[in-house]
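Problem 12. The chain below contains 371 residues. Write out its predicted structure in token notation.
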Amino acid sequence: MKKKNTALSILNIAEVPVRSILLAIDLFFLSAHIFYLIYFWIKGADVMFFFNIFSVTFYFVLGYVSFKHPGHILSYAMLVMLEVVAHASLAAITIGWSAGFPMFIVCCVPFPFFLNFRKMIMPYLIELVLVADFLFVRLLTFGNDNPAGHMISEQTAERLFVFNTCISFLMITVFSTVYKLTKQLEQLKMKKKNETLNILVKIDPLSQLFNRRAMVDFLKKIESDTRSGRGSYVIVMGDLDGFKHINDTYGHSMGDSVITAVSKIMTEEVPSEGYVCRWGGEELLFAVPNSGCTQGAAIAERIRQRLGQQTFTAEDGRTFGVTITFGVCECDGSFSYERAVSCADQRLYYGKQHGKNTVISREQLPHDALQ
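Solution.
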């Protein structure tokens, strides 16, 4: 249950539009720079005040552009990182190293590795630039950790250090979480895609029933369970009567409609624990575990009656009916599923030879192939 809830939460995140996520990130940076704008204005730090006017304008414009064009995530991320590094470097030089602004340069180091660059070397090159900038800023401020001492006291610088450090850790935490969820989402999508492809491989495209290959896998499992002492199972083989005549008279598209119709009826009549497949051409087969000949014959009879009551209309307006013949075989695990399929097929053939539109089980076949 827990795994299901986790997957659900990731899918819920996936449903959030990219533009909304970018807008939320943009608002985070915009709010931070509005705070710095007011703070530096109060403190009289003109250089940082004017730079934050630029930053606030920058995030207003970037937020608008990213909302209109959310596809340019890489460009958006690089512009944000450039602004953060420029702001942190200038603040460290003008306000002082001790105020903690260099922490923003440090927290930018892992971000390039979260992005999808065409060249794998790009994150490492960006990291080198960030390290070089960090060392350059430290060199410029070495021996003068609080150049704006006349505006910002050491106590205020310590408070700024705590505030900036907390914001830096928050940035790392938020973006690392987004990256982790993104990767989990990609894995979940890949898993769902593989599951879908696996299902498509097992499904007949016309009837939307399992194909023969998939049914063989199911029959092997049913046979294994039965031999383990889990009762018996029944296999029922059906074949549409005069299907070649339908194709020749009314066209192959009409023949496809007939197969689709009988497939729908069989899906509705066969119990949920059973399996229905298109065995080949106009042959349809279903198997029901923990069931016997009587139950299988009853299901086949309901399908036969429902199909017999249905009327089909050709493109030229002509109407016609369709019948189907079934062969039923019960297996208790004493012989293979291949033999059970052959038995059902023999009984089906007997039905074809004796009037069609019928259900043939052990009782109706005088010479049981399994006796």
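Discussion. The chain has a mean pLDDT of 85. Students who got a different answer should revisit the alignment rule from Section 12.3.
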